[in-house]
Amino acid sequence: MHVINQICVVLLWMHALTFAQVPDCTLEQFINGPQFNSNFDTTGLQPSYPAGKQIRVGCNVGYSGFFRLTCVEGGWVSKGTVCQPKSCGHPGDAQFADFNLEVGDDFVFGSKVVYTCHKGYQMVSRTNHRNCMNEGWDGVVPVCEAQQCPVIHVDSNVQVNGDPEEATYGNVVRFSCKSKSEILSNPRLAELYCDENGEWSGQPPKCIEIKCTAPQIENGYVTDRNIQEYKEHDVLLFECNDRYKRTEERAAKCTRVGMRAEWTPTPACEQITCNKKNLREADIVDNNKRKYRYNEKVDYRCKDGKRERFTLTCGEDGWIGSSPCTEITCNRKTLPDADIVDNDKPTYRHDEQVGYRCKDGKREQFTLTCGVNGWIGRSPCTESLGCGSPPPLTDGDIKDTLKSIYSHQESVEFLCQSYYTMEGGPNRTCVDGEWIGQMRCLKPCTVDRELMNRHNIAFRNINSDKLYLVHNDFMEFTCTKGRNTGTLPMRQQCIDGEVNLPTCQ
Questions:
Q1: pTM summary value
Q2: Cα(184)–Cα(202) distance, rounded to whole angstroms?
């Protein structure tokens, strides 16, 4: 019996010893553990808890969550969610303003938004920001109002279009003069706007008498230097420097143009120039370009090749000089079915027109023009007349089969003999019973070897290796004995079958 009692005592001692060895869980373990962050509220918790104890850990102000700890064999077992900052939602949009999140990354506890008014608007609220608190956003959404400009005062003769008294940012006020005999003192101020700072873009203008000041004219000068101001409709007298002319021939007057007083047309001087002058009967051989300065010269050569060069000069009123080439003229043209009613004379120059009217009186007036190959145009009075065979061409012939009758506007092409050069043409056209068109065949130049041998001359055809020259070709001569006497150049041109030979001595 004594032994049994001893055994029971030992067992009880061992059982008590087992329970006495289970450790407690400490607050320090939780704080230093992986679950802990600064958002937990540990105030009111004890330093340690026995095994099996459960505790609820709260969150700091502004944070929410549920977290429960259980002490198991000296360690904490957690359940729930960690503390998260409370959301305040959207802070609210302000009219005419934007906001920026200046503190925090989201609309949660501790964040701050700052509102900024749009351009031209000002903050009328006491504060321009809102903070996310434990109970939500503090304060109210700020208010922005448009900047207002001060009242505009103008003279009685100024017309105002707009509201000069209660204008806000972006409003525009326009000014004009009530009287047509006045203009604004500064046309650039004809329109003012209320800016983002609540200020007008300028001072309101005044209306004054229409006047123009004496202008500075480049390459010219005002003749009456004593006058500095001119009234409306006054004429400006000015001259241009040498080699310059007025840009406009009309007199420059002081004129109201919109809200301004301006010289109309603008007094200006430009350099005297001449446009290129093309002549039907001559070609430019030197200084060929589109425009020429004052006193600049241009050399021409007649197309028939029989006349010397001539020169035209750019002058103040255009080209100075005349062409010595054959002038294109047309003789008076009498029509059986129409009468001349305008510009009736025996001879007409190139491009000159003559007015006709049909004798039946039922058709409108028409004109004929003097052209290079005769009269251009046709009579609408009756049916156009046909033509007989065209006149023959010396040293040439028609290209196709010759007919006895040709209709109005029908053309015939001509060809020159071999080695001949055609001038004009190559077509003649039947117009109202007459053949229109002028042409001729220019002869080539042949080589008389026997004559050149007698004169100790050799030659070279510059344009080809042929033993003849066509019209306008050049031949270069050399002396086989002696030298050139200098009476004629060694380089000669074939002109309609004729070429001059130099002399070798």
A1: 0.40
A2: 14
